[in-house]
Amino acid sequence: MSLDLSSLKSELQENYLRTEEVLTGMDAYIAAMGKRFTGMEAHVAALEKRVTSLESQIVAVLASIYDDGDTLDPQSPRIYLGPGP
């Protein structure tokens, strides 16, 4: 099988077009992923804020469960079971 100059030229052009098509697809994919990560940053910030809130709630619950009753600080969190004080 011998290739003449015109068939080599057409094969090179075809390979060039395939390469350009792949690179264009990769550019589109990278752009889509960039948009996705940008949207995730705001979501992550909201989740971090929620986790911080939940951590403080857990600390308050644990403090009220394990409180021995010696501290009478009105600002400390309390959980009352049954009728209140």
Describe this structure in words.
The protein has 85 residues and is mainly α. The chain is 72% helix and 0% strand. It has 1 helix and no strands. It has one helix at residues 5-65.
Question: What are the defining features of this structure?
Answer:
85 residues, rod-shaped, mainly alpha, 1 helix
Q: C-alpha Rg, in Å? A: 32 Å
Q: For the residues shown, what is the average pLDDT?
A: 80
Distance between the termini: 99 Å
- Overall, the morphology is rod-shaped
Ranges with pLDDT <50 over ≥5 residues?
A: none
Let me know the number of strands: 0
User: What about the largest sheet?
Assistant: none
How do the SSEs run, as a string of H and E? Answer: H
> What class, by secondary structure content?
mainly alpha
Helix content: over 70%
Assembly state of the chains shown? single chain
Summarize the structure.
The protein has one helix spanning 5-65. It is mainly alpha-helical.
Give the topology.
Elements: H1 5-65
